[in-house]
Amino acid sequence: MELNNNYKNLQTSYLFSTIAKKVLDYVNENPDKEVIRLGIGDVTKPLCKSVVEALKKASCEMGTQEGFHGYGPEQGYSFLKDEIQKYYYNRKINLKTQEIFISDGAKSDLGNILDIFSKNNKVLIPDPVYPVYVDTNIMDDREIIFLEANQENSFLPIPDKNLKADIAYICSPNNPTGATYNKEQLTTWVNWALENNAIILFDAAYESFVSEDNLPRSIYEIEGAKSCAIEFCSFSKTAGFTGTRCGYTIVPEDLSYGDLSPNKMWLRRQTTKFNGVPYIIQRGAQAVFSENGQKEILENINYYKKNALLIAQTLKKHNIWFTGGINSPYIWLKCPNNMESWEFFNFLLYNIALVGTPGCGFGKNGEGFFRLTSFNTYEATKEAMERLDNLLGDL
Amino acid sequence: MELNNNYKNLQTSYLFSTIAKKVLDYVNENPDKEVIRLGIGDVTKPLCKSVVEALKKASCEMGTQEGFHGYGPEQGYSFLKDEIQKYYYNRKINLKTQEIFISDGAKSDLGNILDIFSKNNKVLIPDPVYPVYVDTNIMDDREIIFLEANQENSFLPIPDKNLKADIAYICSPNNPTGATYNKEQLTTWVNWALENNAIILFDAAYESFVSEDNLPRSIYEIEGAKSCAIEFCSFSKTAGFTGTRCGYTIVPEDLSYGDLSPNKMWLRRQTTKFNGVPYIIQRGAQAVFSENGQKEILENINYYKKNALLIAQTLKKHNIWFTGGINSPYIWLKCPNNMESWEFFNFLLYNIALVGTPGCGFGKNGEGFFRLTSFNTYEATKEAMERLDNLLGDL
To answer: Which residue among B144, B150, B162, B276 is least enclosed by CB atoms within 10 Å?
Structure first.
């Protein structure tokens, strides 16, 4: 018996465990200091009322003979797919319901989608990046080329016309940088994919944070994208579902490579290796689209956005270069005085008891950068920014 | 861009769609006849009270600041893993909590586990069989050899000492045959695996239906199994979770092949491609292990078992050979008068409006056999057996 030896090529990330250890040491040395964490990559506001009510109602149903649901369709219930179809339709994107697949989250599908691709494909991944794109391809031994994201291109890299790759990852608004592609940039991406017979895996997990009108929230706002892109989305950041687990993946029927259809292959993959998202959870996700649900989730998103704005304003005041913050819960900043990522981490921790995430943890181009997030309370964010304001004033 | 061409080798199963079409034709021709379905492969009783209460409570929690849960551990919450550990401990099996991985069901994990194995392994699969074992390996282009299950070995095949394979599937109690290995037989399997450096993927999804004392409910009741077997289990059939989605997989730390550890690899696979089972659902699963929960789920299991017994008794009366029914919700019978599977299907449908599943749909050795299930109501099962009794009496 032979195991998958590609796992030997995976690197263990010590990023978050190292942060935890450093913070613990600091707290032990400074028991009187109030540490504020702006490194959180997880939502903190509770599920909204409409969702909770729907979850409770569905739970009760499942306890009755008439309301009980056994195996559901692996690709999701129509009641939820119809809402997603409408959600896209309202943004002038026409999807067929059989192009929508309900999932337990974007992370699962971004990993599992690789099942339908040959191992021979060359993969294009921006650096810095959400580590899952890299690790899932290492597990399959695909050749990876990195696309340099940096201050010069505002962390929004675009492949050269002649760059050859088969599968390309785009995350916009980006994790970790918060940078968001505009229509023109995404059009260049789509044209590149069409010309190179490549497929784009578009991670739209943060689309609900897009505030500016001219910024696409879906790759399908770009002409031709249905012939070259799969889109992954999630209720995690939209409606605080990080622990509730529901998302969706769009695999257009127009995608066609030889005599195989990615849409039909993904359906086959999911019906073979997945049994669908819990009925109860799908009912909860459906409630996100109700009138009250939409109002309630927007309140939460706006709460986080207000925090992000506060961080952005503080950085602007001190002329610190950053991306994100407007269309994203993340702010990605250049460490002042050319500090390295960990140096700035220590600087913030030991001077103002503020915890963030060193950018170097997301790839080599993250060195010298730093991520702050808007997922703490308004009060804590405000306090943190007052401390930062003073500290930077002294610099 | 190249797709995974192995998908071209998958066969489309028309089994259940053909059944549906035949039944529809019959109903249209015979609108006055009451059709009884004993082909159902899904539970029909609602979730038990304790589980519903736990789901509702957890839903409410998620709507409060104090009770909200974001990202949980990918491998599952301790509160549920601890219960599973106790569940095994009560059967004299000691597991470490880090050997227990909470999943969204056995089907997902049985498919996804292949990620950690090389494509070069040779796979041993019994015939007839749950089609997922075959299809997931075709997707990866692994060489498959079939182990003949038939009336002669009571559909409980055991590999010859000299048979060479790397990965072997066992499903006991079996889907579709209901046949269940005893301790001696499983010991032979474990010894074969240990001698051949093979790994056993043990599907225990139906373990809670085991009634007879001498039959193992876990492969780990067999000495040496922790060095050669991964076990998959699920709340689907145990507690009616087919639409609620929760299961667990045991990957012992003792498993070791070269310098890679399947336990650590599976942890890495799950933390990279999975985000855990919803908090709410894990709370529901935890309630299965409460005193009331155990009482309530046993009532449901006994309800199905009573149906199975009724079917078994009817077949016995007419000297029809069968397996299952005692330790399984499934009854696998030899079609009387040497009828072929579809012939018997039509015979039952057109004579007594009874629907079952032709055995040939589960592999070539299923030809001439037929599956009945205990998942309908007691009243319908009783009525069906009265009709069958009369029909077989006339044969």
So the answer is: B162
For B223, which DSSP code?
T
**pLDDT per residue as tens digits for the range B218-237:** 999 999 999 999 999 999 99
Instruction: Determine whether the interchain pair B260/A5 forms a contact, defined as Cβ–Cβ distance below 8 Å.
Output: yes
Q: What is the CATH number of domain B14-43+293-394?
A: 3.90.1150.10
Question: Residues A17, A10, A8, B71: is their CA dihedral positive or negative?
Answer: positive
* CB contacts, 8 Å: A274 with chain B: 104, 107-108, 111
> Structure pTM?
0.97
Closest CA to A200 of A152, A250, A149, A140: A250
Percent of chain B topping pLDDT 70: 100
In angstroms, the CA A76 to CA A98 distance is: 10
Q: Where are the domains of chain A?
A: 13-42+293-394, 50-289
Instruction: Decide if A276 and B111 are in contact by the 8 Å CB cutoff.
Output: no
Diameter over CA atoms, chain A: 68
Query: Residues of chain A whose pLDDT is less than 50?
Result: none
Query: How many Cβ atoms from other residues are within 10 Å of residue B295's Cβ?
Result: 12
Which CATH number, 3.40.190.150, 3.90.1150.10, 3.30.70.120, 3.30.479.30, labels domain A13-42+293-394?
A: 3.90.1150.10
> Residue B27: what pLDDT?
96
Angle ∠(A170,A193,A186) on CA atoms, nearest 5: 50
Interface check for A305 against chain B (CB to CB < 8 A): the answer is no
Q: Which two tokens stand for residue A363?
A: 């790839």
Tokens 């999804």, residue? Answer: B205
Q: How far apart are CA A229 and CA A213, in angstroms?
A: 22
- Encode B271-283 in three state secondary structure: HHHCCCCCHHHHH
As a whole number of angstroms, the distance between CA B370 and CA A114 comes to: 37
Nearest CA in chain A to B47: A63
User: What gap in Å lies between CA B69 and CA A329, rounded to an integer?
Assistant: 19
Please name the residue ranges forming H helices in B197-259.
235-239
* Fold exhibited by the domain A50-289: Aspartate Aminotransferase; domain 2 (3.40.640)
Q: Does domain B51-289 have CATH number 3.40.640.10?
A: yes
Helix (H, G, I), strand (E, B) or coil at B75: coil
Chain B residues in contact with A60 by the CB 8 A cut-off are: 52, 56
Does B255 contact chain A (CB < 8 Å)? no
Cβ-based contacts of B71 with chain A (< 8 Å): 42, 242-243
Q: What angle do CA B273, A21, A38 make, to 5 degrees?
A: 70
**Which residues from A are below 8 Å from B192, CB to CB?**
none
Query: What do you get for the CA distance between the two ends of chain A, in Å?
Result: 60
